[in-house]
Structures are given as structure tokens and as C-alpha cells.
Amino acid sequence: MDWGNVTAEDLIDALREVDWSSPPRPLSEFFSRFTLPRSSSKWNSRLKCNLYYYRTNYFIMIILILGIGFIRRPLAIAAAILTALTVAFLNDSFAGTFSEKATRTVRQLYPHLAAKMRPPHTRPVLRGRPSAKRAIYICGRPRWVFVLIFSIASFSLWYASCGLLTVLWALAIGLLATILHASLRTPNLKARLNTFREEFRAVWRNYSEL
């Protein structure tokens, strides 16, 4: 697959729609075979490939760096967890799984509230027509409501812990480490297999039929 033709917007859409529950790659694979890219085009293609392939590893690494930066500040650690949840809600798979489990729990504890947590009825997509991006609902509410609430809560905890400057440094270090690793890690054979290419295309172009 020619990753050089994949735009940043396509990559972001793929990361948002891909299955969030995929386990991280083994550390023996994650920290092996580092080489310098031969050209800017090779670097661009390698960066996008590794960002998609090692997405779970990078997410965990950034959270760990944030946690280490605030290991002595419980409020900041709670803020980091809320920030991670806010980012995770942007992923379609995580949002759907979270909504399903939360609705099931509420249905068991408070049956009278279960009806209020159902998403509004949407018209089905007809076969043969290009499928538009469907709206994502969490517990019967638009996803942006949860993103907004968790963003405000996490920002409030960051402010209360007096760690805004520290989180900026920790986040900068985490992003720099991610870009550095993705730039130097040589894409392995698994990242170039046709199965992985088809997986990305299915997510990227939304080929799945409802």
C-alpha cells in the first residue's frame, strides 16, 4: 500500500473508526529495527504507517508519560484518566462499546431509566448508496455531549492540580517520543500485508454495508 497517498485527514478518520480494543504490539517488536528514512517521501509514508499500526502502543505510552509526570499529584492523575477517556470517546468503537455496557448496567440497576438512554431512531442506509457517516450516540445522547463534559471536568482537575504547565511538557514529550519512534521504526512485514491494507481501506473508505 502506498501510504504516501494517504492524507492526514484520511489517517485521522481511520484512527477514529478503527476497533479500539486491539491489543498493543509486543515490546520486542515495538523496540526493534530502527533505521533512518532515505527521503522525505519515505519518512512521510513510514510515519503514517507506524502511527496506524502501533496506535495502541503510542496511546499507552503517552498516558504513561503523563502519569509519570504527575505521580505525586492524585488530582492530576485523575485529570489524565479523564483526558484519556475524552480522547477515547472520539473513537467510534469505544463510544459504542461504552454506551452498550453503561446502558446494560443502568437497565439492571434502574430499569425505568433505560428507555431514556436509547438513541433516536435513524433512517436506514439503502443498499447501493454511498453510506454517510452516521451520528454516534452514547447512552442516548450525542457523543459531543460526553466529550464536552469530560473535557470540562479534566480541564478543571488540571487547573486545580496546578499542573497545566507540567502537562504541556509531558504531552510534548509524549508526542515527540511518538513522532520519533514512528519516524525511525522500520515498517515490518505485518504492516505491509494485504490483509492489513484491506483492513485499513475498509475503515478508511467505509465500505462496510449496513
Structure description:
Helices cover 60% and strands 2% of the residues. The chain is built from nine helices and two strands. The chain has helices at residues 8-17, 27-30, 40-53, 55-69, 74-89, 92-109, 143-160, 164-184, 194-204, and strands spanning 137-138, 141-142. Strands 1-2 form a two-stranded antiparallel sheet.
What is this structure, in a nutshell?
This protein is 60% helix and 2% strand. Strands 1-2 form a two-stranded antiparallel sheet. It has helices spanning 8-17, 27-30, 40-53, 55-69, 74-89, 92-109, 143-160, 164-184, 194-204; strands at residues 137-138, 141-142.
What is the oligomeric state here? single chain
- Label the overall shape: globular
Poorly predicted sequence stretches spanning 5 or more consecutive residues: 122-132
* Number of separate strands: 2
- Strands in their spatial order, largest beta sheet: 1-2
Largest sheet: 2 strands, antiparallel
Instruction: Please tell me how large the radius of gyration is.
Output: 20 Å
The helix/strand class is: mainly alpha
Range of strand content: under 5%
> What pattern of helices and strands is seen along the backbone?
HHHHHHEEHHH
Q: What share of residues is helical?
A: 55-70%
Distance between the termini: 26 Å
Mean pLDDT: 77
Number of helices: 9
